[in-house]
Design a protein that fits this description.
Length: about 220
């Protein structure tokens, strides 16, 4: 029988998690992230960023504070993720409303109406329009808005200009002008003590402005 040399040891095999274990860990991670996002979104919407307590969030989500910092880095990182989620949902609603219209001009009006309607939600106003620019800074907020919504508006204005349906071909500044106007309109609709017909009035004013740009 062959003897092993005294100084020779059998090579150790590195323990690797099997596929079921990896899947279980990924599922657990995704569930933790989803719970944190849902709880944080409710907290930011109800209390605002400054008053929303991370300790209450992690307790409500059933996770540790370490889990929050592991997945999002900080309270601001968690808010950033929530804000991206809100931006994406609003953009999806706007896109769906526009695509439902066969006429390109009506698609513009439908998309703008959908934005005002979505932004009329108090949670969306608090997270996207009030706290978003204040917490992340105007530059980062605008970049996020560009990624989710502004480019859709600009591309559609380019389409209408190419069809000769706009009285101007300056679609880049026009996109920023309309985007800023709609954000401001959404905040105006939400002001305390406002008219119960504020959303309808804002929508009508926006449509009158857009129709004035129609060639």
């Amino acid at each position: 029988m062959e003897k092993k040399s005294p100084g020779t040891a059998a090579p150790k095999r590195t323990a690797r998690a099997g596929a079921p274990e990896r899947i279980a860990r990924a599922t657990q991670r995704d569930a933790t992230i989803s719970r944190l996002l849902a709880v944080a979104r409710a907290g930011f919407a109800e209390h605002g960023y400054a008053a929303a307590a991370t300790e209450e969030m992690v307790h409500a989500a059933g996770v540790t504070r370490g889990a929050l910092y592991h997945h999002f880095g900080s309270k601001e990182g968690l808010f950033r993720a929530v804000l991206k989620q809100v931006h994406a949902e609003v953009a999806e609603r706007v896109g769906a409303a526009a695509q439902a219209e066969p006429d390109d001009w009506e698609a513009l009006l439908a998309g703008c109406r959908a934005f005002l309607s979505a932004a009329n939600d108090p949670a969306t106003q608090q997270i996207m329009l009030i706290d978003g620019p204040a917490v992340l800074g105007w530059s980062e907020w605008r970049q996020m808005d560009e990624e989710h919504s502004l480019h859709l508006l600009r591309d559609h204005l380019d389409l209408l200009a190419g069809q000769g349906k706009l009285r101007t071909r300056r679609t880049e500044p026009l996109a920023h002008l309309l985007s800023g106007a709609m954000n401001e309109l959404a905040l105006w609709v939400a002001q305390p003590g406002g008219s119960g017909d504020a959303l309808a009035e804002a929508t009508a004013a926006l449509e009158e402005t857009l129709n004035g740009l129609r060639a």
